[in-house]
Amino acid sequence: MIIVIGEFRFKADKMDEIRPHMIKVIEASNNEDGCISYAFSESIQSPGLIRVAEKWKSFEDLEQHFKTEHMNNWREAATLVGGSTDRNVAAYEVKSIKEL
């Protein structure tokens, strides 16, 4: 399993404009065959800060995700609102899981 976790930031005054695009990419990504879960969350303490949490069956599935039409649309939408900053997102390969 691949875990993607991280965060990025949009200008706070652009959040109303970008949210509908976030919803679209989340819904489409969650419908991909290799996606286990895909979520963004908006910080309540730091306006414009978005946290990312994704689970994928494999790196191959994640690579395919980057090539989808909805990801291209997401990138275009993000660019139109001025782009994201402070991006810190990484993928980790998980070998074992312990439920807490």
Structure description:
With 100 residues, this protein is an alpha+beta fold. It has a single domain (2-93), classed as Alpha-Beta Plaits. It contains 3 helices and 4 strands, in the order E-H-E-E-H-H-E. It has a 4-stranded antiparallel beta sheet with strand order 2-3-1-4. A hairpin with a 6-residue loop joins strand 2 (35-42) and strand 3 (49-56). Helix 1 packs antiparallel against helix 3. The longest helix is centred in the first third of the chain and has 16 residues, at 15-30.
Mean pLDDT: 97
- Our measurement of the CA-to-CA distance between the termini, rounded to an integer number of angstroms, reads 17 Å
Q: What is the CATH-assigned architecture?
A: 2-Layer Sandwich
Here the CATH topology equals Alpha-Beta Plaits
Order of helices and strands: EHEEHHE
Estimated share of beta-strand residues? 25-35%
- Quaternary state, please? single chain
Low-confidence stretches: none
- The total of helices stands at 3
Shape: globular
Task: Give descriptors for this structure.
single chain, 100 residues, alpha+beta, Alpha-Beta Plaits, 4-stranded antiparallel sheet, 4 strands, 36% helix, globular
Summarize the structure.
This protein is of the alpha+beta class. It has one domain: Alpha-Beta Plaits. The chain has helices spanning 15-30, 59-66, 69-80; strands spanning 2-9, 35-42, 49-56, 85-93.
Give the topology.
Blueprint: E1 2-9, H1 15-30, E2 35-42, E3 49-56, H2 59-66, H3 69-80, E4 85-93
Antiparallel strand pairs: 1-3, 1-4, 2-3
